[in-house]
Amino acid sequence: MIYTVTLNPALDKTIYVDNFSLDEVNRVLALREDPGGKGINVTKVVEALGGSSEALALLGGSVGARIQQMLDAAHIKLHAFQVAGETRTNTKVVDEVRHTNTDINEPGPTVSEADLDSMLQVLLDLICPQDIVVLSGSLPAGAPADTYRTWIEACSAAGARVFLDASGEAFEKGLEAKPHLIKPNEVELGAMLGRALDTDDKVVEAARALVEDGISCVVVSRGGDGAVYVDKDHVVVARSPKVKVASTVGCGDSVVAALALGADTSMELDDLLVLAMATGSANAMQSGTQPAPLELVESLKEQVTFA
Ligand SMILES: Nc1ncnc2c1ncn2[C@@H]1O[C@H](COP(=O)(O)OP(=O)(O)OP(=O)(O)O)[C@@H](O)[C@H]1O
Ligand SMILES: O=P(O)(O)OC[C@@]1(O)O[C@H](CO)[C@@H](O)[C@@H]1O
């Protein structure tokens, strides 16, 4: 089973504005709302790919209730943990004239250590050895900076393979517990290392160092340029299909979902990376944070190449 954890979920409100302008009145042409937050997105995409995943999320207030209803309607299995306060609404501004995607993410409610402890306990009761646990997204206020490290240690000790997709201090502290797989994008990894990772070679070198440091699989996504995969036996540079982009929100989550499904079904490495790149690009073609249909993912697979 693939379990995902979203400590700071969001209702994603995607608004479409042509020629988005600062200091001016902008008129919204269309909008849509999706249940979001990185882990929830991973579960949605695993299910859309035909796999099986359950999401665990901290939810609060009417926005939290709305997210739960939307996931129920989509038949997504959710373990909801109530927190005080209101789950955040994240605004995504898509400008199809200027070809920009702008994220305005709220901080979300403050959670308590008791909220986190009871959720972790339920997760530990659920997981079996070899299960995959995906920890992704920002930490809510109130969560200690080393929350992911604590959770990785506990889930790894229970025999699960932990995937970590986070950034900043939460990511750096999480690395200390040696998750099974990490999927930073090149900007997040570059920020951590204090240098630009703008070529395949630079990304490969950085990923190799992390593998030598004890992370089994390092996947660095590079937006429209694809991704670099490194483990102790392989270095693969994969190129994603060129597609017409509707919204890049959730592309990274789609890649993580494909990697989790591939690991859960013991997929061959080439097939795994073809699926991951096709799923990422198919997501870029969708508006809002909605998973791409399986048929679209399948049709893009033949355009994935290896450098
Ligand atoms: N413009 C694009 N065209 C085609 N494919 C894309 C594009 N942007 C992203 N992708 C696909 O999605 C994958 C992940 O993208 P990216 O590196 O932007 O992830 P990310 O920054 O973690 O995303 P996010 O944080 O928005 O979820 C890429 O490896 C690629 O397969
Ligand atoms: O603020 P975080 O937790 O870093 O990211 C949250 C978020 O931007 O990530 C998802 C896309 O990856 C969205 O569904 C959600 O709004």
Automatic annotation (TrEMBL):
SUPFAM superfamilies for this protein: Ribokinase-like (SSF53613)
Keyword match Transferase: yes
Organism: Muricaecibacterium torontonense
E.C. designation(s): 2.7.1.56
UniProt-listed Gene3D superfamilies: 3.40.1190.20
Carbohydrate kinase PfkB domain boundaries: 7-291
ATP-binding in keyword set: yes
Domain of life: Bacteria
UniProt-listed CDD domains: FruK_PfkB_like
Cross-referenced InterPro entries: 1-PFruKinase, Carboh/pur_kinase_PfkB_CS, PfkB_dom, Ribokinase-like, Tagatose/fructose_Pkinase
Similarity field: Belongs to the carbohydrate kinase PfkB family.
Protein name: 1-phosphofructokinase
NCBIfam families: 1-PFK (TIGR03168), pfkB (TIGR03828)
Main enzyme class: transferase
Record GO cellular component, one term: cytosol
Gene Ontology annotations of biological process type: carbohydrate catabolic process; small molecule metabolic process
A single GO molecular function term of this UniProt record: ATP binding
